[in-house]
Amino acid sequence: MASFDTFRRGSGISSGCSCGEHASQSEHDFACKVTGSEDERYSSFVETAVMRAVFPHTPTRRAFLKTVGSATALAAVSQFLPLGSVTDAFAQGSGALEKKDLKVGFIPITCATPIIMAHPLGFYSKQGLNVDVVKTAGWAVIRDKTINKEYDASHMLSPMPIAISMGLGSTPIPFSVPAIENINGQAITLAMKHKDRRNPKDWKGMKFAIPFDYSMHNYLLRYYLAQNGLDPDTDVQLRSVPPPEMVANLRAENIDGFLAPDNIAQRAVYDGVGFIDILSKEIWDGHPCCSFTASKEFVTANPNTYAALLRAIIDASAYAQKPENRKQIAEVIAPANYLNAPVTVLDQVLTGTYADGLGNIKKDPNRVAFEPFPYDSFAIWILTQMKRWGQVKGDVDYAGIAKQVFLATECAKVMQDMGMTPPAPTKTIVVMGKPFDPSKPEAYVDSFAIKRT
Amino acid sequence: MATSLNLRAALVSFLLLAAFLLVWQGATAGFGGTSGGLPAGMDPEYAKLMGLTATTGKSAMPSPLDVGGALMKMLSDPFYDKGPNDKGIGIQLAYSLGRVLLGYAIAVLVAVPLGFLIGMSALMSRALDPFIQVLKPISPLAWMPLALYTIKDSGISAIFVIFICSVWPMLLNTAFGVASVRKEWLNVARTLEVGPLKRAFTVILPAAAPTILTGMRISIGIAWLVIVAAEMLVGGTGIGYFVWNEWNNLSITNVIIAILIIGVTGMVLDQILAAVARLVTFPE
Fold it and tell me: Would an 8 Å CB–CB cutoff place B224 in contact with chain A?
């Protein structure tokens, strides 16, 4: 099957090829040029992308391919575009580094653990990179600084690169997610006064804080509320609040609770202003949260540097995933240069032995996990929620956008090069007991009673 | 008589400060804190995972002694540099001052000549008035997203915001100062057939200087107000970033120290311009 089936954009076009997936046989041939060898698969992917760039209008492209045949079309396009070099950009990664001094932005939360710890623990320097990890004041700022090329790569909420690539809340700029930062590791925290009001059905009229509109926190909290019969737009108030302000606002009783990264939740407990109601893994065990991102432009201009950076992140994630290393990591990322937070708080987040704020010590070693693989289905789920809550309107090319932004194949290749076994490219997703089928995203959106479509 | 008044004023200031510190100390010490024991029924294992505020009821507000101790520690090593996100308070202050002075200098270069133009020409004064009236009341921070988007560099954006907020008071004061130069002086200049350029520099400038300096003094105050907020937004370096970083850590002690330092620096800047203003003031 065509693993880079990027031509099939619009829906409702009758199938006309042998596999039934493409509008015409020539398109099928073009997309199915994927064969066993890795190299060919990369070149095919790049070629499809280039064809799409040259002929953005789908019917024109199809007509062109149909008349001249895909091989001729490619030959013609290659005349004007150095396809070879673009292909090389994706396939290589072990050559000389184009750029050694890099700036990587991060937000001071435990989600960024691999990006941050790779600095003091030497994962960047191991790859020959001289990386400055720069603390940034907020999600909108990290987005703008990355788009403005002040940062070469950065830590973003995983829906952000999708939103940026689609032009939601900014001009559309192709971004890529070669690695997820963390799995789980968020929590719903409520003010102490609500300790007897833990059933979400009773939360009508409450005010909740989330870090950003394009965040897993937003989608998970909305999902949780809606699943409990509350409309997140009319029954409660959701506010975008920078994480450090959340604890201060909770103390001042401006908000009733928040869904935020665990170090913020744990800080609220540590300061005695709130308690942890549920961990985000109780909504969806294994959900992605933050991501490691770079613009497509940076990727193509600096393929070797990019691959080295990715190796450093994957290496750091693998190190952070081991429970025996977590205590050391907590100490390493606590100083003012990184998270600037008490070690006790970070330790509880990373080891999963934590105070819940109600007098109990809980133990959950999977409170946060660091598994870098960017499954397509993660991106498709995020897109379904963007659609569900009206952030995107009209037809969405779920699989196409997911493939463009979440570079699962790329990540698998780097993992293989490093001698790791990449996970299977599909993953079962179950959110609050409801299974998600990434091949039927539209039906999934329609299946919800509370939605904005 | 004057010295004795100064002495008495200093004494009252000192007494006010002492009273304030005493009340502060008393208020923060009041919330338990001294007992040190755990609340009844709290598991010691659990307590280890919690902060002092939650376990011993220690006030989240530091006492003046805590702040003083932390301040001494910070001032003993103001120029350390432990990487891009952790620099000494002296370095942070230098970054902020550099931004403010640069933005402010550009504002002076724009505002004073433009102010002259507006003050000397009734036509330009009326023509530019609507723009100035609309642009003047805009909160400088409202410019920040636009600046980041168009300039595409956070450092320059911060300087731009300083510029745009400090330009208006100077512009208006210069225009006003220039427009209200006594007619007799201008007439004398005209009688002596002084050229317009010479008139501007030898008659109008000295006459309007006190007003212009007042505008510059207002502007530097505003610029210093804005830099803290701007740096909190863009981050990276500067005293505003320091406040944000310590807020992130919910460290009230360091935030109070930063507030103190910001206040003292603002006062010094203001006093410098006040001294310059005294130099150009003339008795009538």
Answer: no
- Please list the residues that pair with A435 across neighbouring strands: A430
Contacts of B152 by beta carbon, 8 Å cutoff, 6+ apart: A147, A148, A149
Q: Where are the domains of chain A?
A: 25-91, 101-183+288-352+367-446, 186-285
What chain B holds in terms of domains, given with CATH numbers, is 89-280 (1.10.3720.10)
Q: Is B146 on the interface with A (CB under 8 A)?
A: no
Helix ranges restricted to H, B79-204:
89-120, 122-135, 143-151, 154-179, 183-191, 196-199
Contact B63, B24 (CB under 8 A): yes
- Inspect the interface and report whether the beta carbons of B248 and A108 lie closer than 8 Å: yes
DSSP structure class, residue A406:
B
Contact between A203 and A173 under an 8 Å Cβ cutoff? The reply is no
Residue of B60, B82, B234 lying closest to A271 (CB–CB): B60
A137 at interface of B, judged by CB pairs closer than 8 A: yes
pLDDT digit string (tens) for chain A, length 453 residues: 444 444 444 444 444 455 555 555 555 554 444 334 444 444 555 556 556 655 656 666 666 566 656 656 555 555 554 444 444 444 444 578 999 999 999 999 999 999 999 999 999 999 999 999 999 988 988 998 999 999 999 999 999 999 999 998 777 999 999 999 999 999 999 999 999 999 999 999 999 999 999 999 999 999 999 999 999 999 999 999 888 789 989 988 999 999 999 999 999 999 899 999 999 999 999 999 999 999 999 999 999 999 999 999 999 999 999 999 999 999 999 998 899 899 999 999 999 999 999 989 999 999 999 999 999 999 999 999 999 999 999 899 999 999 999 999 989 999 998 999 999 888 899 999 999 999 999 999 999 999 988
- Measured between CB atoms, which of B43, B234, B249 is closest to A340? B249
Classify the complex by whether its ipTM is higher than 0.90, answering yes or no: no
Contacts of B233 in chain A (CB under 8 A): 137-138, 141
Q: Which fold has domain A186-285?
A: D-Maltodextrin-Binding Protein; domain 2 (3.40.190)
A337 touches chain B (CB under 8 A): yes
Residues of B in Cβ contact (< 8 Å) with A137:
232-235, 241, 244
- How far is the C-alpha of A273 from the C-alpha of A169, rounded, in Å? 33
By Cβ distance, the residue of B49, B235, B245 closest to A355 is: B49
Asked whether A329 and B24 are in contact (CB, 8 A), the reply is no
Q: Is B236 on the interface with A (CB under 8 A)?
A: yes
CB contact under 8 A, B235 and A135: yes
Q: Is there a contact between A138 and B233 if contact means CB atoms under 8 Å apart? A: yes
CATH of A101-183+288-352+367-446 given 3.40.190.10, 3.30.1360.30, 3.90.550.10, 1.10.260.40:
3.40.190.10
